[in-house]
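BUG-430 | component: ligand-complex export | severity: low

The export step for NSS jobs runs without errors, but we want the raw record kept on the ticket for reference. Input record follows.
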Amino acid sequence: MNISEILDGKFAGKDVEIKGWLLNKRTIGGVQFLIVRDGTGIIQATIRRNEVGDKIYDEVEDLAQESSIIIRGTVKEDKRAPGGYEIKVTSLEIVHKAERDYPLAKKEHGVDFLMDYRHLWIRSPRQTAILRVRAEVIRACRDFLDGRGFVLVDAPIFTPAAVEGTTTLFEVPYFGDKAYLTQSGQLYMEAAIAAFGKVYCFGPTFRAEKSKTPRHLTEFWMVEPEMAFCEFEENLKLQEDMVTYIVKRVLEKRRRELETLGRDITPLQKVEPPFDRISYTEAIDMLQKAGFQIEWGEDLGAPHERYISLQFEKPVFVHRYPAKAKAFYMQPDPQNPEVVLCADLLAPEGYGEIIGGSQRIHELKLLEQRIEEFGLPKEAYEWYLDLRRYGTVPHSGFGLGIERTVMWICKLKHIREAIPFPRTINRVYP
Ligand code: NSS
């Protein structure tokens, strides 16, 4: 059994054994109150001298935070205990006496300090709540796509070429040659659709983001579905359904964690299809009216996305960006070839982009032309061009950033808490 099952009320009055770590301890009137965590939850345990004997009682009195212990005892319902249950300990085993100077014992620490001790910080209730939500988000993505007949196809990490622009490529030496860490598995998914129809990849992706912002990592995880015979509109529909599924799943399975985080869930409960949609041109208009200095043709930055997202209660699609502001592979809009059939999905409450997606160019000549216009090395894309030579079809897909999604769902101020060990421009430790 584990602590979360006890807190669910399944073991009231029963004998239990818990293997975990000591979080906190105080003694009142000859009774020691231990706060114990086991990775699934936190519970209070009481120790009395006459129950456990002098030796154990005295040893526990001297026990430092983070010591690992095994306790056995009886579960009692007790309204005063945090979580409503406590364990009356009958025996206790000390697995390891932790050293006294636990670096995070003091309550208040600066973020840099906490990040230096990320390997210990992830034990804290707030961090475990966030990381459990993260695990649920990932599971929801996979269940959703598996349930809709998508095949998981893993994309490589070492790649010969850029997907999302050459300025954020990480170059790595590769046996006398050079390779790049992948920015996105998309191009490989475009190959895989001709083998399976509907596919997705899920994995780490890398961008040499030189700016320090609260929403950029250099290593982040992305889920990237891709569909053959799928045009722009159908792609948006899938995104709405998937994001709704993820949010509902977290509300259903991770309610306790959202409570730990103090997350007001009312905005999340409003997430239902259809999402609002505005064109890039409408977005520029809206921004200019609000006093932003931005011209048609420029990409939207964080403050712009934030403003737009705050005008809507649900996630909102911003679609049809200028071709020049976006990636080389996007299909031009037949109504207006200045813009492309792409959309970014902005999360509400000021969060901004969590998904980038588009219909892809499926015609060989146009794709060759774009590769040239963007100044990309054609040799590196020969394999990608082959996909337009042998059985090309209209196709679309998107990439959902896991950390951005977790950041929004948990309402975090900074993306670094949404991943176990964040990598940013000035951090690769621990
Ligand atoms: O650059 S994207 O907008 N789009 C792509 O990479 C496409 N090739 C995906 C596809 O169509 N298969 O990035 C997609 C998402 C974006 O919306 C964010 O949620 C996330 O990836 N993203 C990031 N998260 C954290 N840190 C950084 N630096 C970052 N860059 C993108």
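Assignee comment: Attached the raw record above. The domain at 3-96 is CATH 2.40.50.140 (OB fold (Dihydrolipoamide Acetyltransferase, E2P)).
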